[in-house]
Amino acid sequence: MLEAIAMLSGVFLVAFMFAPIGMGGGMLFVPLLHYLAGWPIDGTLLAVSLSLTWAVSVGSGLRHRREGHHHPEATASVLYGAVLGALIGVGIVNALEDGLDTAFKLLSIVMLIWALVRTWNGQRDSSSEESNDENTQQSIQHVSLRIGGGIGGALSSVLGIGAGVIYVPVLQQQAGLGPRMAVGSSLSIMMVVVPVAILALLTTDPRGLFGGLAEVPWWVVFLPVSAYAGATAGATFGLENISKENIMNIFMLMVAVVLVRYALDVASIMM
Length: 271
Prior knowledge:
By secondary structure, the chain is mainly alpha-helical.
Protein backbone atom coordinates (compact mmCIF):
# COMPACT_ATOMS: atom_id res chain seq x y z
CA MET A 1 0.00 0.00 0.00
CA LEU A 2 2.79 2.43 0.92
CA GLU A 3 4.59 1.62 -2.33
CA ALA A 4 1.40 2.25 -4.31
CA ILE A 5 0.82 5.61 -2.60
CA ALA A 6 4.44 6.63 -3.16
CA MET A 7 4.19 5.64 -6.84
CA LEU A 8 0.94 7.52 -7.39
CA SER A 9 2.29 10.63 -5.69
CA GLY A 10 5.58 10.44 -7.58
CA VAL A 11 3.86 10.02 -10.95
CA PHE A 12 1.57 12.99 -10.25
CA LEU A 13 4.48 15.25 -9.29
CA VAL A 14 6.61 14.23 -12.27
CA ALA A 15 3.71 14.87 -14.66
CA PHE A 16 3.00 18.24 -13.01
CA MET A 17 6.61 19.35 -13.39
CA PHE A 18 7.21 18.16 -16.94
CA ALA A 19 3.88 19.06 -18.57
CA PRO A 20 4.56 22.82 -18.92
CA ILE A 21 7.92 22.27 -20.66
CA GLY A 22 6.93 19.90 -23.46
CA MET A 23 8.40 16.75 -21.93
CA GLY A 24 6.53 13.59 -21.00
CA GLY A 25 8.49 12.83 -17.83
CA GLY A 26 9.82 9.46 -18.96
CA MET A 27 13.32 10.39 -17.79
CA LEU A 28 11.95 10.33 -14.23
CA PHE A 29 9.22 7.72 -14.68
CA VAL A 30 11.82 5.07 -15.54
CA PRO A 31 13.94 5.70 -12.39
CA LEU A 32 10.73 5.81 -10.34
CA LEU A 33 9.64 2.39 -11.58
CA HIS A 34 13.17 0.99 -11.43
CA TYR A 35 14.28 2.19 -8.00
CA LEU A 36 11.03 2.61 -6.07
CA ALA A 37 8.99 -0.29 -7.47
CA GLY A 38 12.04 -2.48 -8.12
CA TRP A 39 11.24 -3.28 -11.74
CA PRO A 40 14.14 -4.34 -14.00
CA ILE A 41 14.90 -2.11 -16.97
CA ASP A 42 13.38 -4.09 -19.82
CA GLY A 43 10.81 -3.71 -22.58
CA THR A 44 7.89 -3.98 -20.20
CA LEU A 45 9.15 -1.21 -17.91
CA LEU A 46 9.79 1.01 -20.93
CA ALA A 47 6.26 0.37 -22.19
CA VAL A 48 4.76 1.32 -18.81
CA SER A 49 6.90 4.47 -18.66
CA LEU A 50 5.69 5.33 -22.15
CA SER A 51 2.06 4.83 -21.13
CA LEU A 52 2.55 7.40 -18.37
CA THR A 53 4.35 9.68 -20.80
CA TRP A 54 1.44 9.39 -23.21
CA ALA A 55 -1.01 10.34 -20.45
CA VAL A 56 1.11 13.44 -19.76
CA SER A 57 1.31 14.36 -23.44
CA VAL A 58 -2.47 14.09 -23.83
CA GLY A 59 -3.28 15.98 -20.63
CA SER A 60 -0.89 18.82 -21.41
CA GLY A 61 -1.00 18.66 -25.21
CA LEU A 62 -4.75 19.15 -25.49
CA ARG A 63 -4.55 22.22 -23.28
CA HIS A 64 -1.73 23.69 -25.40
CA ARG A 65 -3.68 23.01 -28.59
CA ARG A 66 -6.75 24.76 -27.22
CA GLU A 67 -4.55 27.78 -26.54
CA GLY A 68 -3.24 27.70 -30.12
CA HIS A 69 0.29 26.58 -29.21
CA HIS A 70 0.71 24.06 -32.01
CA HIS A 71 2.34 24.24 -35.45
CA PRO A 72 0.68 21.64 -37.77
CA GLU A 73 3.26 21.76 -40.58
CA ALA A 74 6.30 21.38 -38.35
CA THR A 75 4.56 18.68 -36.31
CA ALA A 76 3.69 16.64 -39.40
CA SER A 77 7.24 16.91 -40.70
CA VAL A 78 8.74 15.60 -37.46
CA LEU A 79 6.22 12.75 -37.35
CA TYR A 80 7.49 11.31 -40.64
CA GLY A 81 10.78 10.49 -39.01
CA ALA A 82 9.58 9.93 -35.44
CA VAL A 83 7.23 7.02 -36.14
CA LEU A 84 9.89 5.16 -38.14
CA GLY A 85 12.46 5.93 -35.48
CA ALA A 86 10.20 4.51 -32.75
CA LEU A 87 9.97 1.17 -34.59
CA ILE A 88 13.74 1.07 -35.09
CA GLY A 89 14.17 1.80 -31.38
CA VAL A 90 12.06 -1.22 -30.45
CA GLY A 91 14.39 -3.39 -32.53
CA ILE A 92 17.36 -1.96 -30.61
CA VAL A 93 15.70 -2.77 -27.26
CA ASN A 94 15.12 -6.38 -28.30
CA ALA A 95 18.70 -6.71 -29.59
CA LEU A 96 20.29 -5.38 -26.37
CA GLU A 97 18.42 -7.77 -24.05
CA ASP A 98 20.50 -8.15 -20.84
CA GLY A 99 22.78 -5.27 -21.75
CA LEU A 100 19.90 -2.79 -21.81
CA ASP A 101 20.47 -1.37 -18.31
CA THR A 102 24.01 -0.02 -18.82
CA ALA A 103 23.40 0.98 -22.44
CA PHE A 104 20.23 2.77 -21.34
CA LYS A 105 22.03 4.93 -18.81
CA LEU A 106 25.01 5.74 -21.03
CA LEU A 107 22.73 6.73 -23.91
CA SER A 108 20.67 8.85 -21.53
CA ILE A 109 23.74 10.82 -20.49
CA VAL A 110 24.74 11.52 -24.10
CA MET A 111 21.21 12.58 -25.01
CA LEU A 112 20.86 14.88 -22.01
CA ILE A 113 24.17 16.61 -22.62
CA TRP A 114 23.19 17.19 -26.25
CA ALA A 115 19.83 18.63 -25.23
CA LEU A 116 21.43 20.97 -22.69
CA VAL A 117 23.98 22.30 -25.17
CA ARG A 118 21.46 22.80 -27.97
CA THR A 119 18.90 24.47 -25.74
CA TRP A 120 21.49 26.74 -24.11
CA ASN A 121 22.80 27.82 -27.51
CA GLY A 122 19.28 28.39 -28.75
CA GLN A 123 18.44 30.55 -25.74
CA ARG A 124 21.60 32.60 -26.14
CA ASP A 125 21.06 33.16 -29.85
CA SER A 126 17.39 34.03 -29.48
CA SER A 127 18.18 36.51 -26.71
CA SER A 128 20.84 38.29 -28.72
CA GLU A 129 18.62 38.44 -31.80
CA GLU A 130 15.41 39.18 -29.87
CA SER A 131 13.70 36.32 -31.69
CA ASN A 132 11.75 34.78 -28.86
CA ASP A 133 8.48 36.07 -30.31
CA GLU A 134 6.03 33.24 -30.92
CA ASN A 135 5.15 34.77 -34.30
CA THR A 136 8.71 34.75 -35.64
CA GLN A 137 8.71 33.20 -39.11
CA GLN A 138 11.50 31.02 -40.45
CA SER A 139 11.64 28.60 -43.35
CA ILE A 140 11.02 25.09 -42.08
CA GLN A 141 13.92 22.70 -42.60
CA HIS A 142 11.95 19.54 -43.34
CA VAL A 143 14.91 17.20 -43.82
CA SER A 144 16.50 18.25 -40.52
CA LEU A 145 13.15 18.01 -38.75
CA ARG A 146 12.63 14.45 -39.99
CA ILE A 147 16.12 13.39 -39.01
CA GLY A 148 15.62 14.92 -35.56
CA GLY A 149 12.23 13.23 -35.35
CA GLY A 150 13.80 9.88 -36.23
CA ILE A 151 16.37 10.26 -33.45
CA GLY A 152 13.66 11.29 -30.99
CA GLY A 153 11.42 8.38 -31.97
CA ALA A 154 14.23 5.86 -31.55
CA LEU A 155 15.18 7.28 -28.16
CA SER A 156 11.52 7.21 -27.15
CA SER A 157 11.45 3.42 -27.52
CA VAL A 158 14.94 2.76 -26.16
CA LEU A 159 14.66 5.04 -23.11
CA GLY A 160 10.92 4.92 -22.40
CA ILE A 161 10.55 8.68 -22.83
CA GLY A 162 8.38 11.01 -24.85
CA ALA A 163 11.57 12.52 -26.38
CA GLY A 164 10.44 16.09 -25.81
CA VAL A 165 14.05 16.69 -24.79
CA ILE A 166 14.86 16.16 -28.48
CA TYR A 167 11.74 17.53 -30.15
CA VAL A 168 11.67 20.90 -28.37
CA PRO A 169 15.18 22.09 -29.36
CA VAL A 170 14.80 20.59 -32.87
CA LEU A 171 11.54 22.47 -33.42
CA GLN A 172 13.10 25.68 -32.18
CA GLN A 173 16.27 25.37 -34.23
CA GLN A 174 14.91 23.87 -37.46
CA ALA A 175 11.43 25.42 -37.62
CA GLY A 176 11.99 28.72 -35.80
CA LEU A 177 9.24 28.06 -33.26
CA GLY A 178 9.04 30.07 -30.04
CA PRO A 179 9.13 28.29 -26.67
CA ARG A 180 5.38 27.77 -26.17
CA MET A 181 4.80 26.76 -29.80
CA ALA A 182 7.70 24.29 -29.63
CA VAL A 183 6.36 22.83 -26.38
CA GLY A 184 2.83 22.41 -27.74
CA SER A 185 4.06 20.88 -31.00
CA SER A 186 6.35 18.50 -29.09
CA LEU A 187 3.41 17.27 -27.04
CA SER A 188 1.34 16.75 -30.20
CA ILE A 189 4.14 14.62 -31.66
CA MET A 190 4.27 12.51 -28.52
CA MET A 191 0.53 11.87 -28.63
CA VAL A 192 1.05 10.02 -31.92
CA VAL A 193 4.51 8.44 -31.58
CA VAL A 194 4.30 7.08 -28.03
CA PRO A 195 1.35 4.70 -28.65
CA VAL A 196 3.26 3.27 -31.63
CA ALA A 197 6.28 2.58 -29.39
CA ILE A 198 4.11 1.07 -26.63
CA LEU A 199 2.34 -1.35 -28.95
CA ALA A 200 5.59 -2.39 -30.63
CA LEU A 201 7.38 -2.96 -27.31
CA LEU A 202 4.58 -5.03 -25.79
CA THR A 203 3.92 -7.14 -28.86
CA THR A 204 7.60 -8.03 -29.20
CA ASP A 205 8.20 -8.65 -25.47
CA PRO A 206 9.60 -12.20 -24.96
CA ARG A 207 6.94 -12.92 -22.32
CA GLY A 208 4.14 -12.09 -24.72
CA LEU A 209 1.63 -9.25 -25.00
CA PHE A 210 1.16 -7.65 -21.56
CA GLY A 211 2.75 -10.74 -20.00
CA GLY A 212 5.12 -8.72 -17.84
CA LEU A 213 2.26 -6.68 -16.41
CA ALA A 214 0.31 -9.56 -14.88
CA GLU A 215 1.86 -9.02 -11.46
CA VAL A 216 1.01 -5.30 -11.30
CA PRO A 217 -2.48 -4.92 -12.82
CA TRP A 218 -3.17 -1.75 -10.81
CA TRP A 219 -0.86 0.26 -13.08
CA VAL A 220 -3.34 -0.03 -15.96
CA VAL A 221 -5.75 2.50 -14.46
CA PHE A 222 -4.32 4.28 -11.47
CA LEU A 223 -0.86 5.33 -12.66
CA PRO A 224 -1.99 6.76 -16.04
CA VAL A 225 -4.88 8.58 -14.34
CA SER A 226 -2.45 10.09 -11.84
CA ALA A 227 -0.15 11.12 -14.71
CA TYR A 228 -3.04 12.69 -16.65
CA ALA A 229 -4.24 14.61 -13.60
CA GLY A 230 -0.75 15.88 -12.86
CA ALA A 231 -0.20 16.91 -16.48
CA THR A 232 -3.51 18.76 -16.70
CA ALA A 233 -2.80 20.65 -13.49
CA GLY A 234 0.80 21.34 -14.51
CA ALA A 235 -0.14 22.61 -17.97
CA THR A 236 -2.81 24.91 -16.54
CA PHE A 237 -0.42 26.27 -13.94
CA GLY A 238 2.41 26.67 -16.46
CA LEU A 239 0.37 28.49 -19.09
CA GLU A 240 -1.05 30.89 -16.53
CA ASN A 241 1.96 31.47 -14.31
CA ILE A 242 5.20 30.72 -16.19
CA SER A 243 6.42 33.27 -18.73
CA LYS A 244 7.77 32.03 -22.04
CA GLU A 245 11.19 33.44 -21.08
CA ASN A 246 11.35 31.01 -18.15
CA ILE A 247 10.01 27.89 -19.90
CA MET A 248 13.37 26.94 -21.39
CA ASN A 249 15.19 27.77 -18.15
CA ILE A 250 13.00 25.28 -16.30
CA PHE A 251 13.51 22.83 -19.16
CA MET A 252 17.30 23.02 -18.78
CA LEU A 253 17.11 22.73 -14.99
CA MET A 254 15.06 19.51 -15.18
CA VAL A 255 17.40 18.06 -17.78
CA ALA A 256 20.43 18.88 -15.62
CA VAL A 257 18.88 17.17 -12.57
CA VAL A 258 18.21 13.97 -14.52
CA LEU A 259 21.69 14.10 -16.06
CA VAL A 260 23.34 14.18 -12.64
CA ARG A 261 21.24 11.23 -11.47
CA TYR A 262 22.21 9.02 -14.39
CA ALA A 263 25.87 10.08 -14.16
CA LEU A 264 25.93 8.92 -10.54
CA ASP A 265 24.39 5.59 -11.58
CA VAL A 266 26.99 5.01 -14.30
CA ALA A 267 29.81 6.01 -11.94
CA SER A 268 28.62 3.42 -9.42
CA ILE A 269 28.54 0.74 -12.12
CA MET A 270 32.08 1.57 -13.25
CA MET A 271 33.51 1.47 -9.71
